[in-house]
C-alpha cells in the first residue's frame, strides 16, 4: 500500500477542527514534501518523524513522500501532527495495518528518540472526540488532562513503540478522572486574616454574591491586595461544565494543571502588561488574562498605572462576557466572564486623606493621576470602596473575625436564589431582566430618582445600583428591594458618575 489517511485535530481558539493527514509514497528521488498550509513548526516535523521512526527501529522509506494536511486552507501550527504523520508513513509502507487506526484520533509531538512529548490544547480536542464517540491517542503526559472527559477511550503512550503495541492489541484504556480534592478555598488567604476593614469585607461579600466588579481605593499598606486575594475563596466551587470551560482555557494557553481542577482562577497581571496580554492576540489569536480569568477573578492592582489604552479594551468584554479577536488569517472568540477586582491609591504618593501622613501631591497632580482611569470604565464598576489605613490598635487586637467559610455559605445561598429566579447572577442581568426582577415600591422609586439627580448618575450607573440593591436583598433573603438596600447600594457609588 502506498497511501494512508490518519485522523487528527487542529487547535483553533477553543475549537478543534478535524484534519486528515494524507500520506502518499511515489517512485522517484527520495524526498519529503509537506503541504496543507503548515507553519514552520509543522514543516520541521519532517526531521522529527524521520529520526523517531529510525530510532524506534522502523524502516524509513527511500521514496518520494508527500504529506497533505487537509483541509488545505486551515493554518496548521505546532508539533501535534507528528504522531499522525509517523503513523501514516507506517501504514503506507505496510509496517502497520490500516485497521489499527480506525476510530482513533491521533495527536502528539515526537522527540528525536521516538518519545511522545506533552502538548497543549488536549482538553478541547478530547471534548470533540468524545462527542463523536471516537478514541484518542495522545502522549502519556497528557493522560490526566484528557481523563477529565469521562468515558473517553484513550491510548496514552510514552513513545511511538508503546503506541504501536497498544494499537495492535486494540485495547484502549478507559481512564477515570484523576483522584483530586475538591476546590480548596484554603489555597487563598482566609478573610479572618484581614484586620478591621469591615466595610471592604462587606463589599467583597456583595461582589462575590452578585458577580459585581469592585474597586478599592486607599493608601499603601491598607490591605487592598490581601483583600483581593481573599475574594476567590468566597466564591462557590465550579460545577462540572464550568470546570471544563476553565480547564480548556488553561489547556490552550499554558497547559492545565489537574491539581487545580474545579478551582476558581485568580489572575493578577502586572501593570506593564500590554493590551494583547490582557485581552489576547497574536497572529494566531491566543487567550489573554481576561479569558484565563474566566469564571474567576481578575485583579488589577495599581489601576491608574496601566496604560489608558490597555484599560479601555476591557469595556466591551465587561459588558458582553466574551472577547472577539480578528486577525488577517484567523479569528477566535474566547469567553471572558470574570469578576474584576481593582485597586488604586488616592494620589501619586498614596497618602491623600491619610490620618497621620501628609500628602505631597498638588491638586493638579491628584486630578491628573485619578483621570488616568476613564469615566466609562469606572462607570462599569459596581462597587467603589474607600479603604482607610488600619489603626495600630487593630493590628494587635484579636476580635472574632468572620471566616471565608461563613461568608461563602451566605454567598452560595444568595447565588442560588438568583439562579432560581433569573437563571443568571444579578451582575449579568440585562436592562429588561432587571426591570422584571428589581421591582421598586413608589417610595423606593422616588429615592432612586432623587439619588440620580443629586449624584448625577448615568442610566448605566442607575442600573448597576439596582443590581447591587437586588444582591443585597438576596443576601437578606428579601423578595423586594427595600429602602435600606438602596441606601447601602448608594454608599458604594462615587459622587460623580455621570458618564453616558
UniProtKB/TrEMBL annotation:
<dbReference type="InterPro" id="IPR000523">
    <property type="entry name" value="Mg_chelatse_chII-like_cat_dom"/>
</dbReference>
<dbReference type="Pfam" id="PF01078">
    <property type="entry name" value="Mg_chelatase"/>
</dbReference>
<dbReference type="InterPro" id="IPR020568">
    <property type="entry name" value="Ribosomal_Su5_D2-typ_SF"/>
</dbReference>
<dbReference type="Pfam" id="PF13335">
    <property type="entry name" value="Mg_chelatase_C"/>
</dbReference>
<dbReference type="InterPro" id="IPR025158">
    <property type="entry name" value="Mg_chelat-rel_C"/>
</dbReference>
<protein>
    <submittedName>
        <fullName>YifB family Mg chelatase-like AAA ATPase</fullName>
    </submittedName>
</protein>
<feature type="domain" description="Mg chelatase-related protein C-terminal">
    <location>
        <begin position="402"/>
        <end position="493"/>
    </location>
</feature>
<dbReference type="InterPro" id="IPR004482">
    <property type="entry name" value="Mg_chelat-rel"/>
</dbReference>
<feature type="domain" description="Magnesium chelatase ChlI-like catalytic">
    <location>
        <begin position="190"/>
        <end position="394"/>
    </location>
</feature>
<dbReference type="Pfam" id="PF13541">
    <property type="entry name" value="ChlI"/>
</dbReference>
<dbReference type="InterPro" id="IPR027417">
    <property type="entry name" value="P-loop_NTPase"/>
</dbReference>
<dbReference type="InterPro" id="IPR045006">
    <property type="entry name" value="CHLI-like"/>
</dbReference>
<dbReference type="InterPro" id="IPR014721">
    <property type="entry name" value="Ribsml_uS5_D2-typ_fold_subgr"/>
</dbReference>
Amino acid at each position: 500500500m502506498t497511501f494512508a489517511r490518519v485522523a487528527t485535530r487542529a487547535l483553533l481558539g477553543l475549537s478543534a477542527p478535524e484534519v486528515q493527514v494524507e500520506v502518499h509514497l511515489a517512485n522517484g528521488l527520495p524526498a519529503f514534501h509537506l503541504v496543507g498550509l503548515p507553519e514552520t513548526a509543522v514543516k520541521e516535523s519532517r526531521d522529527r518523524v524521520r529520526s523517531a521512526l529510525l530510532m524506534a527501529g522502523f524502516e524509513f522509506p527511500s521514496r518520494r513522500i508527500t504529506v497533505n494536511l487537509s483541509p488545505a486552507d486551515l493554518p496548521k501550527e505546532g508539533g501535534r501532527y507528528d504522531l499522525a504523520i509517523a503513523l501514516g508513513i507506517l501504514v503506507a509502507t505496510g509496517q502497520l495495518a490500516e485497521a489499527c487506526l480506525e476510530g482513533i484520533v491521533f495527536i502528539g509531538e515526537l522527540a528525536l528518540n521516538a518519545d511522545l512529548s506533552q502538548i497543549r490544547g488536549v482538553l478541547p480536542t478530547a471534548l470533540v472526540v468524545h462527542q463523536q464517540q471516537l478514541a484518542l491517542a495522545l502522549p502519556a503526559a497528557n493522560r490526566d488532562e484528557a481523563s477529565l472527559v469521562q468515558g473517553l477511550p484513550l491510548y496514552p503512550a510514552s513513545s511511538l513503540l508503546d503506541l504501536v503495541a497498544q494499537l495492535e492489541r486494540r485495547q484502549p484504556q478507559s481512564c477515570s478522572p484523576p483522584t483530586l480534592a475538591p476546590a480548596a478555598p484554603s489555597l487563598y488567604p482566609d478573610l479572618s486574616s484581614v484586620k478591621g476593614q469591615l466595610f471592604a469585607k462587606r463589599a467583597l461579600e456583595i461582589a462575590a454574591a452578585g458577580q459585581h466588579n469592585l474597586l478599592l481605593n486607599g493608601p499603601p499598606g491598607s490591605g487592598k491586595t490581601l483583600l483581593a486575594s481573599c475574594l476567590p475563596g468566597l466564591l462557590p466551587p465550579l460545577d462540572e461544565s464550568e470546570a471544563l470551560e476553565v480547564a480548556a482555557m488553561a489547556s490552550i494557553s499554558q497547559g492545565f494543571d489537574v491539581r487545580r481542577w474545579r478551582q476558581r482562577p485568580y489572575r493578577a497581571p502586572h501593570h506593564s502588561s500590554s493590551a494583547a496580554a490582557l485581552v489576547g492576540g497574536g497572529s494566531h489569536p491566543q487567550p489573554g488574562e481576561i479569558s484565563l480569568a474566566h469564571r474567576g477573578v481578575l485583579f488589577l492592582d495599581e489601576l491608574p498605572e496601566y496604560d489608558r489604552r490597555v484599560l479601555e479594551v476591557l469595556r466591551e468584554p465587561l459588558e458582553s462576557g466574551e472577547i472577539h479577536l480578528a486577525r488577517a488569517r484567523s479569528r477566535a472568540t474566547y469567553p471572558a466572564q470574570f469578576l474584576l477586582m481593582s485597586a488604586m491609591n488616592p494620589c501619586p504618593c498614596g497618602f491623600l486623606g491619610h490620618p497621620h501622613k501628609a500628602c505631597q501631591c498638588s491638586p493638579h497632580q491628584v486630578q491628573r493621576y485619578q483621570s488616568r482611569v476613564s469615566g466609562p470604565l469606572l462607570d462599569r464598576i459596581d462597587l467603589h470602596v474607600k479603604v482607610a489605613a488600619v489603626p495600630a490598635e487593630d493590628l494587635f487586637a484579636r476580635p472574632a473575625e468572620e471566616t471565608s467559610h461563613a461568608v461563602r455559605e451566605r454567598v452560595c445561598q444568595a447565588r442560588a436564589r438568583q439562579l432560581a429566579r433569573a437563571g443568571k447572577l444579578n451582575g449579568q442581568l440585562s436592562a429588561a431582566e432587571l426591570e422584571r426582577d428589581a421591582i421598586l415600591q413608589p417610595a423606593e422609586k422616588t429615592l432612586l430618582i432623587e439619588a440620580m439627580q443629586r449624584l448625577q448618575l448615568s442610566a448605566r450607573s442607575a442600573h448597576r445600583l439596582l443590581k447591587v440593591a437586588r444582591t443585597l436583598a438576596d443576601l437578606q433573603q428579601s423578595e423586594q428591594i427595600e429602602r435600606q438596600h438602596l441606601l447601602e447600594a448608594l454608599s458604594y457609588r462615587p459622587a460623580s458618575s455621570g458618564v453616558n
